[in-house]
């Protein structure tokens, strides 16, 4: 299944290209950042375009994966639905067609006839990405496509993507918001147990080319299955003393922040945008853990980065479930998030929410300290 990993790295790069082009090309950029003013139809249209970029990215990933691995068709899920209603109230199913021209024609019907924007977007979707450098040679993954399912978040942290603030990233430091928080997330799980086994993260806006040719991305990947645990990122070395560092959503509850101060060093409670970006911070060692007390993330947010954390010896647990465990008990593997079953008593996207909140961690002893600090306090 190393072939699947190489394919996912390639389609994620293609997706990142589309995300970059939507910001680089003036006719597309205009649609992305237009102020929501004017009549309702206009408001709806702008909203539509943002969703369209997401839908298109998801569909291109689905299209390319299905072409190479037909056994996966029917098991490639994502945040977006490809049934689309345009500004005129017409329903259009957005797909990647066999030629660029056909895709452009279809997109024009969604974009209220804006042919320039439709052609630019279609070109990006049909363009081959640059070759991805990833040391996957010699990697064998003991899995069959018929055992697997996929979760896609075409763009995570959309609000940061739209806002588009440019930050220069400092080595070894977490930057709370900006374009670099926007990520393409593709996670692979086992259909039988829901375990995340492979993940690809592409960060389309990692750094700006000094030569002025625009943004360059960065990719991260991991495989965790049986005795195969391999990740593009190495496990960060042990940190100096001074307590744990935890990254939170800026909207996190006061009671959680207060409870965590007992295990976190001063200034070690940090805030960042994007659920995917926060888990990436844990993967990179920019924070020891990510705690979220609300059910505001979904399977497509956590599946890919969860696989990378597992490959590094960590994981992502359901916070509510873990809190129910007895204090002395060893960490129960059943508290790890799984990806194969919807929540029966919910409907729509809510069926796939991580309802109990979550804790993403690299080190199980650090997870235990965090659970100890939170137990009885929420
Ligand atoms: C969002 C996005 C948000 C996050 C939220 C996700 O996904 O990652 O940033 O909230 O949980 O569902 P927060 O930044 O407060 O953690 P999307 O951008 O794909 O809607
Ligand atoms: Ca998301
Ligand atoms: Ca998204």
From TrEMBL:
Binding site for Mg(2+): 79, 153, 155-156, 301
Cofactor: Mg(2+)
Gene3D superfamilies assigned: 3.40.190.80, Fructose-1,6-Bisphosphatase, subunit A, domain 1, Inositol Polyphosphate 1-phosphatase, domain 1
GO function terms (MF aspect): inositol-1,4-bisphosphate 1-phosphatase activity; metal ion binding
Enzyme class: hydrolase
Keywords, sorted A to Z: Hydrolase, Lithium, Magnesium, Metal-binding, Phosphoprotein
Signal peptide positions on this chain: none
Pfam families, per database record: Inositol_P
Family: Belongs to the inositol monophosphatase superfamily.
InterPro entries for the chain: CysQ/Inositol_MonoPase, Inositol_monophosphatase-like, Inositol_monophosphatase_CS, INPP1_dom_1
Pathway: Signal transduction; phosphatidylinositol signaling pathway
GO BP, one annotated term: phosphatidylinositol phosphate biosynthetic process
Subunit structure, interactors included: Monomer.
Protein name per its UniProtKB record: Inositol polyphosphate 1-phosphatase
UniProt EC number: 3.1.3.57
PANTHER family per record: 3'(2'),5'-BISPHOSPHATE NUCLEOTIDASE 1 (PTHR43028), INOSITOL POLYPHOSPHATE 1-PHOSPHATASE (PTHR43028:SF3)
Catalytic activity: 1D-myo-inositol 1,4-bisphosphate + H2O = 1D-myo-inositol 4-phosphate + phosphate; 1D-myo-inositol 1,3,4-trisphosphate + H2O = 1D-myo-inositol 3,4-bisphosphate + phosphate
Function text: Mg(2+)-dependent phosphatase that catalyzes the hydrolysis of the 1-position phosphate from inositol 1,4-bisphosphate and inositol 1,3,4-trisphosphate and participates in inositol phosphate metabolism.
């Amino acid at each position: 299944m190393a072939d699947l990993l190489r394919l996912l790295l390639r389609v994620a790069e293609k997706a990142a290209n589309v995300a970059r082009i939507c910001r680089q090309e003036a006719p597309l950029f205009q649609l992305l950042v237009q102020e929501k003013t004017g009549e309702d139809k206009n408001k709806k249209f702008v909203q539509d375009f943002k969703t369209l970029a997401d839908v298109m990215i998801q569909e291109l990933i689905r299209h390319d994966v299905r072409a190479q691995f037909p056994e996966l068709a029917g098991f490639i899920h994502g945040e977006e639905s490809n049934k689309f209603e345009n500004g005129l109230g017409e329903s259009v199913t957005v797909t990647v067609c066999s030629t660029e021209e056909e895709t452009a024609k279809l997109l024009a019907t969604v974009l209220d006839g804006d042919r320039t924007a439709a052609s630019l977007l279609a070109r990006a979707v049909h363009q081959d990405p640059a070759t991805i450098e990833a040391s996957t040679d010699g990697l064998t993954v003991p899995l069959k496509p018929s055992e697997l399912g996929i979760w896609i978040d075409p763009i995570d942290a959309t609000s940061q993507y739209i806002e588009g603030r440019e930050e220069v990233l400092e080595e070894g430091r977490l930057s709370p918001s900006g374009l670099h928080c926007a990520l393409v997330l593709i996670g692979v799980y086992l259909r039988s147990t829901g375990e995340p086994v492979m993940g690809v993260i592409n960060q389309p806006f990692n750094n700006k080319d000094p030569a002025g040719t625009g943004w360059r991305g960065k990719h991260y990947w991991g495989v965790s299955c049986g005795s195969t645990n391999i990740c593009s990122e190495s496990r960060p070395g042990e940190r100096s003393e001074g307590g744990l560092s935890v990254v939170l959503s800026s909207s996190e509850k006061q009671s959680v922040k207060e409870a965590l101060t007992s295990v976190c060093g001063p200034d070690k409670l940090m805030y960042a945008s994007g659920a995917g970006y926060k888990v990436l911070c844990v993967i990179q060692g920019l924070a020891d853990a990510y705690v979220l007390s609300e059910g505001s993330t979904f399977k497509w947010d956590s599946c890919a980065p969860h696989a990378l954390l597992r490959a590094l010896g960590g994981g992502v647990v359901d916070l509510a479930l873990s809190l129910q465990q007895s204090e002395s008990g060893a960490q129960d593997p059943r508290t790890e998030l799984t990806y194969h079953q919807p929540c029966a008593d919910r409907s729509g996207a809510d069926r796939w929410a991580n309802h109990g909140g979550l804790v993403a961690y690299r080190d199980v002893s650090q997870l235990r300290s965090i659970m100890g600090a939170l137990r009885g306090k929420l």
